[in-house]
Amino acid sequence: MDTVITGLGTVSPAGLGVEAYWEALVEGRTLIAPIPDFDTEGFHVHLGGKVPGFDPYERIEGRFVVQTDAFTRFALIAAEEALRDSGVDTSVDPYATGALICSGAGGVEFGQREIEALWSEGPDRVGPYQSIAWFYAASTGQVSIRNGLKGMCGVLVTDEPGMLDALGQSARTLRRGTSSMLVGGAEAPIGSPFSLACQVGSEVLSPGVDPTTAYVPFTEGATGHVPAEGAAVALVERADVARERGARIRAVVAGQASTFGGIGVFDPGGEGLLWAARQAMERAGVSPEEVDVVFADAVGLPKADADEAATIRRLFPKGVAVTAPKTGFGRAYAGAGALDVAAAVLSLEHRIVPPTPHVLDAPFGLDLVVRVPRPARPRTALVLSRGMGGANSAVVLKHPEHA
């Protein structure tokens, strides 16, 4: 039974909505800038990908704003767009639709404010929503409440692979009888000193101060990646349900697989990523010759980049187009895999492979799309993702005409 994507929503450093996100990707726009919310002196990280001009009260009811952190607000907005785009009316059968939204950081900014109130003014000044707003599941819970969803709901606490893993888990949920699922990832990890401090110990963030050179994976100048915030949510359905209601199918989720490659910053040697990619392709029933574009994980660390490049070369000995559009705005942890999936869906739809911003050539023997977008007619996209600690995931997406 096929799982299909019929709705898509994004919040990114390009702004709110899929249209703004896709325009920025095609243009290869630089969306990385100095972190604006606090003085980063004392940190070795100074740049980030920030959602611009975001006022939650313009898009979300006040009762939800006061009890949520920014990562949940991003999920609420992206989910609203995905539902609207899909045309699914969740009021007809609230039990037919569930939600599975991922996060790795949770509501750290909200938590910092409440901890400051505790230490400066005492426990009476800690708000009642501290117990829920920081929690990783807050995004799934608030999306469910706001949209009246009573189907299967859950959360994956994970790094970048979250959305890919959630697509696989949701496919199994759909096979058990659920009609549709809101699946996504959301993060807001750069809005407070505490949230940034939680990341710097990993030694994977770039110390660069030039937005055009700070995050340049697959190059000799790679020194890590730039953190970012954002979210993407997809409405996935059983194909038969989508076709019965005459929905527009944006992409088919043809295959997904995950591995744990061992304790370490990232999967050592890339064997886990290779296995996940091969299994995803096998489950999708596609050969290497049928994959037209790979959306790379692109950590920005020399060893991790070399391992990923070697994996891609082993998977595709005859070559394949590779891109990493996130270099234009940074890695948003659980939101990054979600935004990569959204980029792959849009690439299949628009018949264009977006470029890898700031990377000017194609090293490691990769056919990396650089400088300008590449017109193409991609039928199948492979999205690769790795997370801190050794998690790997891969998903194969197909254009509906070729499913």
Key structural traits:
PKS_Beta-ketoAc_synthase_dom; alpha/beta; 2 domains; two-stranded antiparallel sheet; acyltransferase; 33% helix; Ketoacyl_synth_C; Peroxisomal Thiolase, Chain A, domain 1; 403 residues; 12-stranded mixed sheet
Tell me the layout of helices and strands.
Blueprint: E1 3-12, E2 15-16, H1 18-27, E3 33-34, E4 47-48, H2 62-65, H3 70-86, E5 97-102, H4 108-121, H5 130-133, H6 138-147, E6 153-154, H7 162-175, E7 180-187, H8 193-200, E8 230-238, H9 239-244, E9 251-260, H10 271-284, E10 293-295, H11 302-315, E11 321-323, H12 334-350, E12 352-353, E13 367-368, E14 374-375, E15 380-386, E16 391-398
Parallel strand pairs: 5-6, 5-7, 10-11, 10-15, 11-13
Antiparallel strand pairs: 1-2, 1-8, 1-9, 3-4, 7-8, 9-16, 12-14, 15-16
Helix pairs in contact: 3-6, 10-11
Describe the 3D structure:
Keywords: Acyltransferase, Transferase. InterPro entries: Beta-ketoacyl_synthase, Ketoacyl_synth_C, Ketoacyl_synth_N, PKS_Beta-ketoAc_synthase_dom, Thiolase-like. This is Beta-ketoacyl synthase N-terminal-like domain-containing protein. Belongs to the thiolase-like superfamily. Beta-ketoacyl-ACP synthases family. The chain is an alpha/beta fold. The chain folds into two domains: 242 residues, Thiolase/Chalcone synthase (Peroxisomal Thiolase, Chain A, domain 1, 3-Layer(aba) Sandwich); 144 residues, Thiolase/Chalcone synthase (Peroxisomal Thiolase, Chain A, domain 1), CATH 3.40.47.10. Helix content is 33%, strand content 19%. Helix 3 packs across helix 6 and helix 10 packs parallel to helix 11. The longest helix is centred in the N-terminal third of the chain and has 17 residues. The protein is globular and about 65 Å long. The model has no long low-confidence stretch (mean pLDDT 93).
